[in-house]
Amino acid sequence: MLKTVQMVQLMETTHRNLWLKLTPYLALFIFIDLSECINQAEVDRHLELGKQYLAKGQLGDALSHYHSAVEGDPHNYLTYFKRGTVYLALGKAKNAISDFDLVLEMKPDFTAARISRGNIHLKQANYDLAQLDFYNVLKTDPYNQEANDLIARIDPAKERVRLAEYYYAHDDYINAINLVTEALETSPWAAQLYELRAEMHMNNGEEMAAVSDIRSATKLQSDNTEGYFKLSQLLYKLGHASESLKSIRECLKLDPEHKDCFPFYKRIKKVEKFLTEAETALENKSYQECIDAALKAEKNEKEVQNVIYHAKRLLCACYSNDEQSDDAITACTEALGINDDPNVYCDRAEAYLQSELYDDAIRDYKAALEMNSQFERAREGLNKAENRQKQSERRDYYKILGVKRTASKREITKAYRKMAQKWHPDNYQNDEKMKKIAEKKFIDIAAAKEVLTDDEKRRQFDNGEDPLDPESGRGGMPNFHQFHTFHGSPFQFKFHFN
């Protein structure tokens, strides 16, 4: 009896000890089971939100929720498929293929994923891979309409690419370009086709078209350092220094020590900086700053003609606007030696006008109009030059007061006072001959002040008309009442006309 009691007590003690040992593990099993339930609920919530955002067209938000669903349940092929579809809609083909690959590893007979992956391969001109995917679909589902339609597009596209390469090898660039263009209708995500067509455009002398194709190729390949380098070189060659710098920076974002991009960046950075400074100064009418910056750009680039042209064009415009006519004529002539530009012709024409070389100015305005018959600046300039030529036989009010055509009203008034004091007839009371000369000059000085301090009359004169010329029907003698208000004048003067 005693032994039985002792055995029972021993068993109870053993059970209690066993329970104490197992309790932590049981708690862990319960926690794991509960965590799985919570995670699945969270996954379902993300899937539902992803579906809702997808329906609204908010692809970025939908993708974010599908990311979370994949992290919560990395073994669900449908979640990968949904995320791959969103990637596809966003144009991220590389990510979409990665997801479709995972789907087909988990479920090889998932037709929708195989067709979607094959379609991406077709758009990327990976024709053999596309054909394999469509073939595998048709092997199990021979009447699948989508797979049949897509596989039928492969051979014609392959043939167009083959013929394009044949024509390109035989220097028939036009036919080659047309065939690649047709192939791109089937394969619009094929970076290699854009690069091929860019080469054809370059050989055909269509450099801006090549720029467009290289840009398309760089967008389709996220790590295309070679593409960015080519694009930057071509843009710089065309004279687009700022765009070139942007492209080379994209290359350096991918590889800061790139063996080609880094040296090229160092070379063009200074030139682009000076050209941009010159452009900004020209816009702000800070002409000497523009000249200084353009000269620095010219000093730092001795080889690329279009960049040199850009610097000389800026020098031409800034010298002309600053009325440094001799330097303007030189810079404009050098710029036109590189590239015909109607604006440069007009800038040089303005410089010729400043030097009173009217025939040369008229010739340049006509040259600009031959390039663009609708160019309003050239048309107005030609009219002004012809009128100035006629006007040169009459009074030049700027010359009379000794001021520039850009003089302010304050400068004109100051010059008028100085000239009026100098040529007031009372200064020549004892010299009848000089007195008559002074009377004429004094009348001209008064006329100059009247015209150049009146905005409308000055505008007319700048356009080649004399608003005080009786023959023009616009004016006559100046208003002489202004002499009575000539500040600081000790003179009393009356005009006597025969």
List keywords for this structure.
498 residues; mainly alpha; 24 helices; 75% helix; disordered N terminus; disordered C terminus
Fold and architecture overview:
With 498 residues, this protein is mainly alpha-helical. Helix content is 75%, strand content 0%. The protein is built from 24 helices and no strands. α18 (342-354) packs antiparallel against α19. The radius of gyration is 41 Å and the shape is elongated. The N and C termini lie far apart (166 Å). The model is unreliable at 1-8, 18-38 and 480-498 (pLDDT under 50).
Question: Can I get a quick summary?
Answer:
The chain has 498 residues and is an all-alpha fold. It is built from 24 helices and no strands.
Topology:
Blueprint: H1 2-56, H2 59-72, H3 77-89, H4 93-106, H5 111-123, H6 127-140, H7 145-151, H8 154-169, H9 173-186, H10 191-203, H11 207-220, H12 225-237, H13 241-254, H14 261-283, H15 287-300, H16 305-321, H17 325-338, H18 342-354, H19 358-371, H20 376-391, H21 397-401, H22 409-423, H23 432-452, H24 455-462
Helix pairs in contact: 1-2, 2-3, 3-4, 4-5, 5-6, 6-7, 8-9, 9-10, 10-11, 11-12, 12-13, 13-14, 14-15, 14-16, 15-16, 16-17, 16-18, 17-18, 18-19, 18-20, 19-20, 22-23
